[in-house]
What we know:
Order of helices and strands: HEHEEEEEEEHHHHEE
Largest sheet: 4 strands, antiparallel
Radius of gyration: 21 Å
CATH class of the largest domain: Alpha Beta
Strand order of the largest sheet: 1-6-7-5
Distance between the termini: 29 Å
Structural class: alpha+beta
CATH topology of the largest domain: N-terminal domain of MutM-like DNA repair proteins
Amino acid sequence: MPELPEVETVRRGLTPVLEGATLSRVTVRRPDLRFPFPENFAQRLEGATVLRIDRRAKYLLLRLSTGETWITHLGMTGRFTLDGDPTGQFEDEVPTGGKHEHFVACADLGGRLTRLGYADARRFGFMGLIPTDEVEAHPWFNHLGPEPLGNQFSGAHLIEAFAGRKQNIKVSLLDQTIVAGLGNIYVCEALYRSGISPLTAAGKVTKPRLNRLATEVRHVLDDAIRAGGSTLKDFANVEGGQGYFQHSFDVYGREGQPCRTEACTGTIARIVQGGRSTFYCPRCQK
Length: 286
């Protein structure tokens, strides 16, 4: 499933083409993805101008001139694609996509037309239209904690959130009410960089370690975004390219391989926590 860096990569890829563009020729090719498309979805998007594209946790939020916000969650295999038309116009029909493409539209930015497609082989993604002034109160968002790259996220926040918490710190960091958007890959990497065992109860981690953890969470996410995210199986950016951060993993997916910490003789181990694989160095992460 795309995690925060992958969704942010998609947002940055869509922004130059869609912000300020007017949508037209919107076509929805099936009634649902994970959930049904909103009622009259195509008609409500037709003629709307995209004012801004934001990201909240693992959601994309396209703010529209109609007063609504178009919400998209990529699920496991959701993918936006862009196909520019160098002549500035599409003759006849908009070019067609593959069999798993369920949504298509044209975006007109100052006469430059771009075909926007959304494909989703497993259909675990979903889309919604919510009045913009009601987004924060919507059930998809009203429970979310601070953004890990935002000003509200810090060591102090983790110290307060984890006080007295007996659950292990790995699973605690995946709790979206504590930190919004963190996923399995980047939690493993941040804990390794911080020297914290994923088995430790969150409330037992010292304040200095939590301060360092907050810093390393930011660093690992920034590093991943600069690399275009991680492509393990399905993820691709809007141009169809892959992310490259998977080549920089210190622990994730490296079970049985040597620890990369200098002078460490440990071997990366894999355990299961909360139904998900955790990778760590038992020697470095005490």
